[in-house]
Amino acid sequence: MSQTTDTAPDPDQVQTESLTLVQAVREGLHDEMERDDSVLVMGEDVGENGGVFRATQGLIDEFGEDRVVDTPLAESGIVGTAVGMAAYGMRPVPEIQFMGFIYPAFDQIVSHAARLRTRSRGAFTCPLVVRAPYGGGIRAPEHHSESTEAFFVHEPGLKVVVPSTPYDTKGLLAAAIRDPDPVVFLEPKLIYRAFREGVPADPYTVPLGEAAVRREGRDVSVFTWGAMTRPTTEAAENLAGDVDVEVVDLRTLSPLDEETIVESFEKTGRAVVVHEAPRTGGLAGELIATLQEESLLYQEAPIERVTGFDVPYPLYALEDYYLPEPARIEDGIRDAVEF
Fold first, then answer.
1. pLDDT per residue over 249-269, tens digit each?
2. Residue 39 to residue 209: CA distance in whole angstroms
3. Which helix (H) or strand (E) holds 31?
4. Can you give the CATH number for the domain in which 131 is found?
5. CB 3.0–4.6 Å: which of 91, 161, 211, 245 could bond 260 by disulfide?
6. Residue 4 has pLDDT above 50, yes or no
7. In terms of residue numbers, what domain contains 264?
8. Looking at the structure, do residues 23 and 164 belong to the same domain, yes or no?
9. How far apart, in whole angstroms, are the C-alpha atoms of residue 269 and residue 287?
10. Residues labelled catalytic
11. Quick check: helix, strand or coil at residue 317?
12. Is the pTM higher than 0.70?
């Protein structure tokens, strides 16, 4: 089994490929399977069909049926089997076709994967990565557009990662696969093919637990992740000249990069949190509590939330009204700044 200690390279200094986000998923899986023969992918239609979004396309041809495993339609069985494999030295990467299908496997993830280290007093770890496309905006039917990351953030023992760029996707996925504990890796399918970016051809990692400041600003900090990073950045650019907006992409939701979050807020004194999950019980509440516990004396205005609504995710005719879009994000930013 080969092992390397690759870290994130400067994309301007190495050979790069122009990849979409879903292509970066595929490249990340390929590189980790090539460097470590304990890594395997498994899930519904991941083999011959290459996955519902073609994120695993061609892997079966290179690595074979023993490492690219087509499974029955049984999410609990998929993740439960992966837990057993991880406990005995493998590094499985089970795919759940859509986040809305993950709930049959919820018990396996939170009752077994997340607790194996503490339950065994460190005798076993559970190095698996549960991949799931999440979020709305693709005109999908019911149960295909959920954004329920807060369920998993609430569970000790799990890491929760949500990339927003092809570069970060490949590096974060590699870091997640190499991590000794379970990771829920949520892929924003709205931007799977929305844009391309230069991605190093060689393996590298982007550290888990570190946020990225996508845009520097001094008037207000906007915290977001995943597919909402693009409309948030667009809103910030639309307001340029009137409001100097700092955009912080969390990238890892558990553990949170509290240092970067607090540092940004103490610089600006105002904040907005943007996520597409429903408002009540969403991660925005935890971020706001953290800021008020750590930096209350820096706060200049109420912290705004721009989120989805407390309703079941709507069908396609209404989803444009449900998802935060630049105009609604701009309104939230103005409310924070003009208080």
1. 999 999 999 999 999 999 999
2. 22
3. helix 21-35
4. 3.40.50.970
5. 211
6. no
7. 212-338
8. yes
9. 14
10. 144
11. coil
12. yes
